Amino acid sequence: MQQTFEAWITPLMIGGLMIFMCFIIWDLAKKSNAGKFGTIMLFVVLGAGMLGYVFKVVIAWLIERGGM
Q: Domain spans of the chain?
């Protein structure tokens, strides 16, 4: 029961955290009057860590499935 709960709640919570981090980046861009280019750069640079985590999860899933 606990393993099933953890298997479902962990990705949901990490996804929620990523959405919250996107909100923080957007709020930072808005409060600093970054403009369109600055907002894009903030999302690219600060979002790179989140994108790296997503890549890690996808690669691990592919390896476990035997796709690589």
A: 2-65
Q: Report yes or no on whether pTM surpasses 0.90.
A: no
The mean pLDDT value of the chain amounts to 90
Tens-digit pLDDT profile for residues 16-45: 999 999 999 999 999 999 999 999 999 999
Nearest to 26 by CA among 14, 15, 11, 38: 38
Give exposure, 17-51, as e/b (b: 16+ Cβ within 10 Å). ebeeeeeebeeebeeeebeeeebeebeeeeeeebe
